[in-house]
Design brief:
544 residues, alpha+beta, FAD/NAD(P)-binding domain, 7-stranded mixed sheet, 15 helices, 18 strands, globular
Amino acid sequence: MKIIIRSLLILIIALFINKTSVGLPQKNKNNTYDVVIYGGTASGVMAAIASAKEGAKVVILEPKLHIGGMVTGGLAATDIGRRSVIGGYPLEFFKRLGKYYNYQSMTRDSIGWFPEPHVAELVLNQMIKEAGITVYYQKRLKEKGGVKIEGGKITGLIMENGDEFTGKVFIDATYEGDLMAFAGVSYIVGREAKEVYNEYSAGIRDSFGSQSAYDDAGKLLPRVQTQAPGPVGSGDTKTQAYNFRLSLTNDPGNLVPFPKPGHYDTRRYIDLLRTTLTLINKEGAVQAAEHMFPGMGKVPHDKVDLNAADYVGGNWDYPDGSYQRRKQIWEDHVDYVAGYMYFLGHDEHLPQAYRDAINRWGLSKDEFIDNHNWPYELYVREARRMVGVYVITQHDVVSDMQKTDAIGLGSYGLDVHPVQAWVNDKGLLKYEGRPQRTEQERMKHIPYQIPYRAIIPRKSEVKNLLVPVCLSASHVAYSTLRMEPQFMILGQAAGTAAYLAVKQQKTVQDIDIKELAALLRTRGAFLESKIKTLGDLKPGMGID
């Protein structure tokens, strides 16, 4: 009964927020703001809070129906790296979550690092309300002619419904980088070749895998390429796999059975079947099923954040795709991921004991309740990447880690999911995309500084735009930067820089960097780390 009441309250709150926030502004009928933020991801929210708390008039334009991006869209098991690099408003967010869950006497640091999605959205909305920020939902940029530019500056954004929002500084906080791209800023999709930035993990990587690439009838499995990817280290335009981060539970009172998708094709899961049977033969049916649901105890209320079902090769058209093409890819991913879990719970080639163990889990009834309990966000791990004033490369996150214009810290290791599947001359299914990593990169111990230059475009292109999510980084470097805490850290920096650009009446490229750093520190952001080399690590010191 409590779960039903809680679900109804969540739905009522969500509907109220969306109903009252869609449409024309009431307090600002001219739609004119100091800072206009396109994309209500967690990064966009932090940017808005940072600007608004300094006194700027701020608006968030969110194309969908919910703010928070992946933080409220399924990614509950936060990719942290070192906790000690997270400060400022992002840390305040996680502390509020700890208070919500009454962690003060229950956990080591009293901080809610791994929140339920609906709770994360609740807290973000509280912070937005307290900061006096205007949010408008279902405001998507007009695909053609949606960005107005005069004299090298963006002057306004036109939405699909014709609404126009003008401002002094703009922030693109989307995962796709549409505002950036539509404004004519240089960007790249895919992987640079090794020689572009002299990165030893760049480009196409060594392949792995030993299963057959054919089904029992001798037909090639779906989405398996017949040509080899190319020489190791060469570049391409392909992007690592996407999926959905499902919020699952084994609480019978809060469980929705895994749905069968509208387009269900068991051939998509033949490789999954083979690897699952191998694991079952090795460890037993129930133990093999338990491998599907790691991290029990991280997310409150008997939930896990499932990070499986990578749809390898299904997303290559997404980053630069039209809205219509992206919609098709999105729906295809829904079918694939839903089918993945339905297959494991129902396919008769799997032992009954295994299927029963899988079906003790299901979608969380109290999450995403206005979307059939399905996550609001496709996990776009990487899309466009700006080529801005400075491009962060592997060297910047491994060896040359100190910067004169630091605005935040990163600490996660290089993390790339498979990019493509192909069949070799022996008929074996091979996956490719994982980066070469040193022991230091696997340890994730040494924080690196993120430079301000990486979130601003070249002055010759646009003078009043900041890009904290699709920032200027190589594919390799982006694989550590693409974590939600870092996006939030960069969001706070972007929002603060936007305020300073308005205050100083300067381009984003010309603001006073020392003043930016000082203001960030005043607001609790961490720009330096005491750990700069492996020698600074104490014996047995792990991720703090």
